[in-house]
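In this section we walk through a basic example: taking a raw amino acid sequence and producing a predicted 3D structure, encoded as discrete structure tokens. The instruction is simple. Fold the sequence below.
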Amino acid sequence: MNKNKVKAFATWARSNLIEKIKDRAYKIGIEDNRIRDIEVVQSGFKVVGGEEIFNISPNHRKSLIKEIESKSLDEVVEEVAYTWFNRFIALRYMEVNDYLPIGIRIISSEIPGKREPDILFRVGEVIRELRLDSDLVYKLLDSSKNSDRENLYKYILIRQCNELGNIIPGLFERIEDYTELLFPDNLLEEGSILMKMCSDIDEEDWKEEVEIIGWMYQYYISEKKDKVFDDLKKNVKITKENIPAATQLFTPKWIVKYLVENSLGTIWIQGREDENLKNELKYYLEEDIQDFEIDDILHNIKLGRKNLHPEDIKVLDPCMGSGHILLYAFDVLYKIYKSAAYPEREIPRKILENNIFGLDIDLRASQIGMFCLIMKARAYNRRFFREVEKNPLKLNIVAIEESNGITYEIIEYFAKEDEELRGDLSYLVNTFKDGKEFGSILRVEKVNFQRLKERLEEINEENNLVFSDYRQILLNKLPKLINQGEIMSIKYEVCITNPPYMGLRGANDTLAKYLTNHYPLSKHDLFSVYMEVCKSYLKKDGIYAMVNQHSWMFLSSFLELRGKLLEDSTFISMIHLGSRVFEDNVGTIVQNVAFINQNSEIPKYKTRVVDLTKEVTALEKKVKIKSVCSGMERDGIYNIWLKKLMTIPTKPFAYWVNDNVLNLFSNLHKFENIAKPRQGMATSDNKRFLRDWYEVDINEINFSAVDRDEALLSKKKWFPYNKGGEYRKWFGNNRYVINWENDGSEVKDYAAMLYKSYSRTIKNEEFYFKSGLTYTFISENMGVRYSPQGFIFDVAGSSIFLDDKDLEKVVLALLCSKVANMFLDIMNPTYNIQVGDLKNIPIHEDVFKEEIKSIIDEIVEENIAISEAEWNDFETSWNFRTHPLMRDLRERKVKNVTIESRFKLWEKENMKIIEKLKNNEEKLNKIFIDVYGLNEELSPDVPYKDITLRRIELEREVKSLISFAVGCIMGRYSIDVDGLVYGGGNFQDKWDFKNHRVKKVEIDSTGKVNENRWVNSSFMPKFDNIMPITEEKYFSEDLMTKFIEFLKAVYGNEVLEENLNFIANILGKKDSETSRQSIRRYFFKEFYKDHIKAYGKKPIYWLFDSGKNDGFKALVYAHRHDSLTVALLRTEYVHIMQRKYEGELSTLELIKDSQEYSAKERAIARKKSEKLKRKIEELIEYDEIVAYMANEKKSINLDEGIKENYDKFQGIKIMKTNGKEAKMNLLYKI
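The resulting token sequence is shown next.
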């Protein structure tokens, strides 16, 4: 199956259907904001003011309007769209596999190349079978109108769906009249949903497996799923209507096979000792040889399964979705029945009616699941449909129905003063109130369902008009409530599922409260809740199988759940899947586990665990587990009594740990005895309170506050903020600042408003501004860094503080070592590094012995120095000094140096420090491994990928040199002074244009100014802060000419051409270009994209850009922007550019019309002329927005951040000269 094609079609189909159905609604006078009046005519109605007559009962339209009023137009359209989508794909599957009872294709044709479906040419053959009106059929056939042919096709499709409802309940049940009313038009046209379904998806894909229907549905709702999660990021909780879209995930087939074969398969194989079936099941995992002392227990369990008949084995999927797991359970059940010598024709029906049970909150998904199961039965028995027509199926597939609408008065009417009836119905009504909110997690006790059914039958036969409303509600709702109540109250031999993944934080208040009250141990996520739910559905010694996220195995929030599971159940086997298992989740953050759990404790049972975390791709994992199950592979298999691991402080399921490591946890002191790991604050609104340091006025940042009092007295607004960041060790990731003005009053007030007390989210203030260690909360590896004084810290950049600062370097070294990472991997191998896990790291006192500590301290000091220097080599560091390709040139007064030679020198230095850091880290690993006695478990070697220094890359570093040059051109940096020259404030305080001087300021780490004086500048920035970027040289001073001036000033005039050639070649110089043309093209086309990327979509240089025709481009340094900048840009640059274009155009017009020039020259002139005309036209239009904004005299507030200020110049509504309103951008659209 080509899943890319399936996904592309399904997502397109949803938007197409919604559009077509809305068009249909519009035609019958229903719009988003109004309902138009209609005139009733003899055969139907027409919209007032319209011509088309709809031969449909006006009552159908009334039903539609009523439905829209109770929901919304969008919701009704969505429902109708997926109703028809599901039916269309089901019909396509049936016709391709020759399952349609009529035996004629209804979507396509069997004749290659023929567009219209066969049914239109053979409709006479099915008039009786589909109960068609023959007069109407022949009338429409005889018509020459395309619309009548469409109407005939629509008529046939609807009748076919209605007829299929007799054998396939659910998906083809009779629909509401308004659903037919909104049937999409023009299905026979080229490009319609039906035509694209046939053309875009290979016919063979429909023949592979019925699972294509499930994939279709999952992809169909994928855009809705994306929206739900986008909303969740905006703190919009997941409503019950959106839970299905948010939580459905298709399980890979090989995982399904493991789950089914080792639960359902185990029940039968152990009971009947069925070696033949075991050999057929390729993912059946043999249990380990157990200790003799539990032989009797195991024997009794198997004995209890010996008398089971196939009909006795009930299999439940409480989160069935589209039935993927149940479909494979069907296959295994079929093998079981065959092994018990049942007649093959009887088996499919027996499975559907006796063995397969499914629950879901999504009606559409459960209908698809029901359809797929019936198709599976049809695949095993060709006569299945005929048998079902004679004797309807009793399926056990349920979409949870709500009891909402059944009032106290209705209950009283139903009970008829019978206390048992009243109590039982009241119980069901209370249990299933808002049932779709909770689904199968609801706990349902048995009531007298038979008595309820009997009373309902009595009501069905009544003819009491007084209670007709009550009667109708009961007849509509109660059969479903009884059915689901029965299914949810019985106990099962087997329960198998891939549960929904939805954290408590994403749940709406109603669901969150229910989970907290009823599932306190597992409430943190629905996937863990279902571990308790599945167990509750089982008989004693029953088995449940599940795949879910592996966090429950390790996180402290699931500690009690782990303990409970080990107390009263037994894990038979587990596959630790790791990441990249599901197609919708290609990243490494979400990791999974599949397991088989038996509902009884078997003391000292050795669970067989297979570790697939080291296999990278899903295919590698599949191949490995299949090899393990066949006995061909032994690597990565562990057989362990899981309760043994409870001696580890956080009680993780760290199945790979040996006794030596377990003893370290038991015998050594804990990390918390010497250090204080502390969780940082959550601002509750990072966009409001955090900035990248380069966004704000540098003069408003205090980099050196030692405590809160000093910060308060400084009157500064912004302070350094540790917020985690990428995996990095020793030093770095210093990028953010937080608004902590007046001791954080604004942040605190906001938190207090949200949570009543600000201390709920703003924690550990007493540690703010202290030096310590910091790390990233979510990270694949533990990267700890030294954090000097002056920082506040975030929950994502939690920190560690020591009372004895003398131990800080040893602790940093330990946390950056393989030993600490091993302990953390044991306690919590998820990507969330918890404070609680750090506290429990075993600390060996020998590492603090002076002879060992002195060696560690020296190495750590060097590692910090190396990492800090490397971090500061890049201009996004606030301690950036100068570009490494220019380092020492000024001090050594060296001229005429090539950039290539400087790069080779830097490359050599970079390789040297990487090697040095690698050697240092390996020395530290060796020390800690020896001290802890872990030579058998760990190697000191460090792979290069774990050395967190940036390896220099030629293209990136040349572009970063260009970026630095632009910084010098715009006045941010200087080639004569190290560090940031101007980042806000009065520009004239830093640059003296009259005397060609720049201010040199040196500030130490405590904030003390050691030097503040003017020095001569050999390169001055652009005076007016406007730097045009042009394709050709139109201005005496543009970005290209200024860049050449920069290269001369830094590297010398004699090597200018060599340096230009070097840069141009790195940037991808074309054969037809000179080096200057190549670099000019880079500035014109690519530089700004690189700048946006380097500065995280918060560019400090703003590109004024007229649009796609590139009529005008100019850079402005945001920190120098003032209220007159735009006016100056207009008069001195936009207008001049326009005049230059017009002058050039005049010349070109003469050339293209003159016979004095060759045909080639005239053609070139003609092409350039057309291009210039477009530029001029664009520039004239751009001038309107520039003029408008120039008059606005808009200034910016750097405290608001780059994005907020940038947006002030975007999407501006103006009245154009033609009198029309337009929305225009002044700047490049990010």
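Looking at the output, two observations stand out. The first strand starts at residue 38 and ends at 41. The radius of gyration is 37 Å. In the next section we compare this with other chains.
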